[in-house]
Amino acid sequence: GAVVSQHPSWVICKSGTSVKIECRSLDFQATTMFWYRQFPKQSLMLMATSNEGSKATYEQGVEKDKFLINHASLTLSTLTVTSAHPEDSSFYICSARGLAAQTGELFFGEGSRLTVL
Amino acid sequence: GENVEQHPSTLSVQEGDSAVIKCTYSDSASNYFPWYKQELGKRPQLIIDIRSNVGEKKDQRIAVTLNKTAKHFSLHITETQPEDSAVYFCAASIKTGGFKTIFGAGTRLFVKA
């Protein structure tokens, strides 16, 4: 089956620093990747759609300068949380849809838990 | 944009009983409806899905129904087991924007032994 790997699985950083999270599709090519944010006991909130070779599409209310997304290849998308603050602490999870997928089925990474001190 | 509502937020059942989770969606252009199960601290896993041209789909103890006219779909779990305890998310997917998938708020299912 399709495997999506996310790294790091958890990270602690100081306020004001930037953190990069990587999302890789290991055994398939992903033209589109999605970044979600999940607060404790809450749903998955779509932050942005990452398209290979083009700019990401951000959802309303998500600051594109705060959450930089790069999808440089068909197997890698990165999310950089810039100048992180404690309110950015959350569980960030990526997902990918393969080239062959016609239905929109998503394959999720393991998630990255960010704690900003 | 698409909005997905999910009920109930919490559901507690006795082992062996059935569990039903209901969702509604707002965008009639949605054409794919997956259900995901998420255990604590883990990634969501697809358990069943249904396309807009189908009214019902079943996979062993799990079934999903879709009413396009009313824009609602439901997950049915029969003969529940303690290992079914998890958070379940419904979702609606729209082909525009690269199959954007919007999730419901989730239902925390407890199956009591």
Can you put this structure into words, describing what you see?
- The complex is a heterodimer of chains A (117) and B (113).
- With 117 residues, chain A is mainly beta.
- The mean pLDDT of chain A is 90.
- Chain A has strands at residues 4-7, 10-13, 19-25, 30-38, 44-51, 57-58, 67-73, 76-81, 90-98, 107-108, 112-116.
- In chain A, the strands form two sheets. In chain A, strands 2, 4, 5, 6, 9, 10 and 11 form a seven-stranded mixed sheet that branches. A four-stranded antiparallel sheet of chain A has the order 1-3-8-7, with no helix packed on it.
- Chain A contains no helices and eleven strands.
- Chain B is mainly beta.
- Chain B is 4% helix and 58% strand.
- In chain B, a hairpin with a 2-residue loop joins strand 6 (56-59) and strand 7 (62-67).
- Chain B is globular and about 45 Å long.
- The chains are: A mainly beta (117), B mainly beta (113).
- The interface between A and B is medium-sized, with 26 and 24 residues.
List the SSEs and their pairings.
The complex is a heterodimer of chains A (117) and B (113).
Chain A (H helix, E strand, L loop, with lengths): L3 E4 L2 E4 L5 E7 L4 E9 L5 E8 L5 E2 L8 E7 L2 E6 L8 E9 L8 E2 L3 E5 L1
Parallel strand pairs in A: 2-11
Antiparallel strand pairs in A: 1-3, 3-8, 4-5, 4-9, 5-6, 7-8, 9-10, 9-11
Chain B lengths: L3 E4 L2 E5 L4 E7 L6 E7 L6 E7 L4 E4 L2 E6 L4 E6 L8 E9 L1 H4 E4 L3 E6 L1
